[in-house]
TrEMBL record:
<feature type="domain" description="Protein root UVB sensitive/RUS">
    <location>
        <begin position="59"/>
        <end position="291"/>
    </location>
</feature>
<comment type="similarity">
    <text>Belongs to the RUS1 family.</text>
</comment>
<dbReference type="InterPro" id="IPR055412">
    <property type="entry name" value="UVB_sens_C"/>
</dbReference>
<dbReference type="GO" id="GO:0009926">
    <property type="term" value="P:auxin polar transport"/>
</dbReference>
<dbReference type="InterPro" id="IPR006968">
    <property type="entry name" value="RUS_fam"/>
</dbReference>
<dbReference type="GO" id="GO:0010224">
    <property type="term" value="P:response to UV-B"/>
</dbReference>
<dbReference type="InterPro" id="IPR054549">
    <property type="entry name" value="UVB_sens_RUS_dom"/>
</dbReference>
<protein>
    <recommendedName>
        <fullName>Protein root UVB sensitive 2, chloroplastic</fullName>
    </recommendedName>
</protein>
<dbReference type="Pfam" id="PF24160">
    <property type="entry name" value="UVB_sens_C"/>
</dbReference>
<dbReference type="Pfam" id="PF04884">
    <property type="entry name" value="UVB_sens_prot"/>
</dbReference>
<feature type="domain" description="Root UVB sensitive protein C-terminal">
    <location>
        <begin position="294"/>
        <end position="422"/>
    </location>
</feature>
């Protein structure tokens, strides 16, 4: 047997396979002081390696911090707004941790103890973890609403946390009600922790750009931990000096709370959530009807109403989603209304002032968008009449079918997820 020939055949085959695969995509970017090597890994992620660096020490420290606490490939691997979100997240955790130390010190004073700042820091973890389980039970039925409005619930979670902390700080003023104030305060904080954890994943998902959700999550939690430690250090220092007296706590506590709530509000405003819910769908439809173009998640993030997300938007047809079916339409007209749009997974009923849309149980984002466009066009066509006639709805339906293919394509290109419609705990039907 000619074994050398077989070996040569294997080598030729290996070379041919390497030629077919082609060289890895690698390039270098060089500025006046820094040279970096960029390469796409086999899994599609962008890898960045520092080749040469003649910058001052300060700039190198900042770059080292970004490499350790920001996702790989930053800023190319995340969506717009991540830096601002992270800046205010750091400030939020710092203020929250400092406030937590002060509140725990107050609780122990109210109980008749005289703790050191270090003791207050240790006990705060025990109190917080002890009430988390009860808060979990109370919040267990709110998960769907948190999926629909993660930014709103994230803010509410921090408001709850500060209310609980406020009760703890005030407990020395009412030592006879120590157990009541401590119990209610820690219950609020426990609910807050559950709500903030439940909304964490949707918020991180909105920044993921290259399937790097795990990397984003890990780096984000690292930043949270780092600034929690910083906040605890600040809290210990305040508890030893300015806030050693009750008067000091009554001044510093509200200031820390204001910083905390402001920071989390700015975090949420910077977050470009890309899932469809009633408010974002209404804003997308309104912009499309006015300008003929689709807004991206980054375009809408600062326009979202985080306090009253269910308000009706006139330019989008004043569509209301999620009411009980029996309140929207009479049972005798149900089949008739369903036959107006055969094959569709929505029912519309109402007038020019407000149109109710009820979705089928398995309806997705595309179905909600189709129904919303029909309702908006129907309001435009039937402005002169108060009632929406069948002929008006059919005209609107034809108009929707004309624009929908281009509309949905542009929507997906802008990064919107159309495979789900998150209407919270809204009612749906099945026939």
């Amino acid at each position: 047997m000619d074994f050398p020939f077989l070996e040569k055949l294997k080598i030729w085959k290996k070379k041919a396979e390497q030629e077919e695969e082609g060289p890895p995509l690698v390039w270098f970017e060089t500025s006046a002081t820094v040279s970096r090597r960029f390469q796409f890994e086999p899994n599609g992620q962008l890898s960045v390696t520092l080749v040469g660096d003649s910058r001052p020490l300060y700039h190198r420290i900042v770059d080292s911090f970004l490499n350790k606490f920001f996702p790989s490939g930053y800023p190319y691997s995340v969506n717009e707004g991540y830096l601002r979100y992270t800046q205010f997240r750091a400030l939020q955790h710092t203020a929250s941790a400092a406030l937590s130390v002060l509140s725990t010190q107050s609780l122990l004073f109210a109980a008749g103890l005289r703790p050191t700042p270090a003791q207050a820091t240790a006990v705060s973890w025990v109190l917080k973890d002890g009430m988390q389980h009860l808060g979990n039970i109370i919040c267990s039925k709110l998960g769907a609403r948190m999926d629909s409005e993660p930014k709103r619930w994230r803010i509410l979670a921090d408001v709850l946390y500060d209310l609980g902390t406020g009760l703890e700080v005030l407990s020395p003023l009412c030592p006879q009600f120590f157990l009541e104030m401590a119990g209610i305060g820690n219950l609020a904080k426990g609910m807050s922790i559950v709500a903030s954890r439940a909304t964490r994943l949707p918020i991180y998902s909105s920044f993921a750009k290259e399937g790097n959700l795990s990397d984003l999550f890990a780096r984000g939690e690292a930043i949270s931990t780092l600034f929690n430690v910083v906040g605890i250090g600040i809290g210990i220092q305040l508890a030893s000096t300015v806030c050693a007296s009750m008067q000091g706590k009554l001044v510093v506590g509200p200031l820390l709370s204001i910083i905390h709530i402001y920071s989390v509000s700015e975090e949420m405003r910077a977050t470009p959530v890309n899932t469809l819910n009633p408010q974002r769908t209404a804003m997308i439809v309104a912009d499309f009807l006015k300008a003929g173009s689709v807004s991206s998640p980054a375009d809408l993030r600062y326009r979202e109403d985080l306090l009253f997300p269910r308000r009706l938007i006139e330019d989008a047809g004043n569509v209301r989603v999620g009411r009980d079916l029996h309140k929207v339409i009479k049972p005798s007209r149900l089949l008739e209304s369903k036959q107006v749009f055969p094959g569709e997974k929505f029912i519309l009923n109402g007038d020019n002032r407000c149109i109710d849309m009820v979705l089928e149980q398995d309806a997705i984002g595309k179905d909600a968008l189709r129904g919303w466009l029909v309702a908006s066009y129907a309001v435009q066509i039937g402005k002169s009449s108060h009632e929406l006639s069948t002929s008006t709805l059919l005209q609107a339906y034809e108009k929707m079918n004309e624009v929908f293919p281009a509309f949905i394509k542009e929507l997906q290109c802008k990064g919107w997820h159309t495979d789900r419609f998150l209407d919270g705990s809204g009612c749906r039907f099945a026939l």
